[in-house]
Design goal:
Elements lengths: L2 E7 L3 H14 L5 E6 L7 H7 L4 E2 L6 H11 L4 E5 L3 E3 L3 H11 L3 E11 L8 H9 L10 E2 L7 E5 H6 L15 H9 L4 E12 L10 H18 L4 H18 L9 H16 L13
Parallel strand pairs: 1-2, 1-4, 2-3, 6-9
Antiparallel strand pairs: 4-8, 5-9, 6-8, 7-9
Helix pairs in contact: 8-9, 8-10, 9-10
């Protein structure tokens, strides 16, 4: 099976460059690589084509969802592996991906086992991520288990099935498109199995360098996006309420002594604005585009 490695990136040129160099040095069986930058300067073209002479750069509207859709529109392989620009796969990740999807035609989407995830802390450097991967032992993990949704930092999709059923990333989830991976997964769910595969191993650096939405924008999305998806039908209201409640509580409790790498006050203010918009019946996921 042919595999495309796809990366949608924004504002993190140095991070992307480090990841491309890592992939070039460590992953030998990439069939195709496609990059969709938010802006022209977000990718070092000279480095990209030095590492991958047959790479392609595509353009799309700014935002994770439209950028990923732009990639889906041009992919010609059996599978597309979406990686965040700060995700480092183990050297056998793609080999194991082929084996997984060839072994079970009923699997339509998969996500790997994130050995370390810097998103829940201050983040990891590329060197730290490589050190984690170098310390991995033999790949003797078991088989896949079904899950509710893939994790957007590393997710594999059967391209033809998504196209045949007109399944797209929802462009009403702007910018960082919080929960787009969940929405896409639930659109796919009626057509097959969505799994986590522990033999697909990698490290998500969770870099806190530029590129992610400011606190107020993310805080607004923490309310608006789950409500939008519940109304759409790709997220149950029970899960939406639980997700919203957890985020409001976390932002409120930690606001007094926030983590240095998280804008808790901004997130909480975004929560408040979204709740106000909900009461006024003008809640809109796209309103974050108006925030500074």
């Amino acid at each position: 099976m042919k595999v495309t490695v796809a990366i949608a990136t924004a504002g993190r040129r140095e991070v992307l460059s480090e990841t491309l160099e890592f992939l070039h040095k460590n992953i030998r069986d990439i069939d195709e690589i496609v990059i969709c930058p938010a802006r022209e300067n977000d990718v070092d073209r000279a480095l990209l084509f030095e590492c991958f002479p047959n790479a392609r750069i595509v353009t799309g509207d700014i935002g994770s969802s439209p950028q990923r859709n732009a990639i889906m529109d041009v992919v010609e392989t059996d599978l597309v592996l979406f990686l965040d620009d700060d995700f480092l796969p183990a050297d056998d990740y793609i080999e194991e991906t082929r084996r997984l999807f060839q072994s079970d035609p009923g699997i339509i989407a998969a996500t790997g086992h994130v050995i370390r995830d810097g998103i829940i802390g201050p983040g990891l450097s590329t060197a730290e991520g490589i050190e984690v991967l170098e310390g991995l032992g033999p790949n003797d993990a078991g088989g896949p288990d079904e899950i509710y949704n893939v994790y957007g930092c590393n997710m594999i999709i059967r391209v033809d099935l998504a196209r045949q059923n007109n399944i797209r990333f929802d462009e009403n989830l702007p910018l960082y498109a919080w929960q787009e991976d969940l929405d896409f997964s639930r659109q796919l769910a009626p057509f097959g199995r969505i799994v986590i595969a522990p033999r697909l191993r990698g490290v998500h650096l969770g870099t806190k360098r530029s590129g992610r939405s400011p606190g107020k924008r993310l805080g607004y999305s923490q309310i608006a996006n789950p409500i939008y998806l519940a109304t759409k039908g790709t997220l149950s209201w029970r899960r939406a309420v639980r997700l919203i409640s957890r985020n409001i509580a976390s932002n409120a409790v930690k606001c007094a002594r926030p983590e240095p790498w998280i804008d808790r006050r901004g997130r909480l203010w975004g929560n408040v604005i979204a709740l106000g918009d909900l009461l006024l019946r003008r809640l809109d996921t796209r309103r974050v585009l108006d925030f500074e």
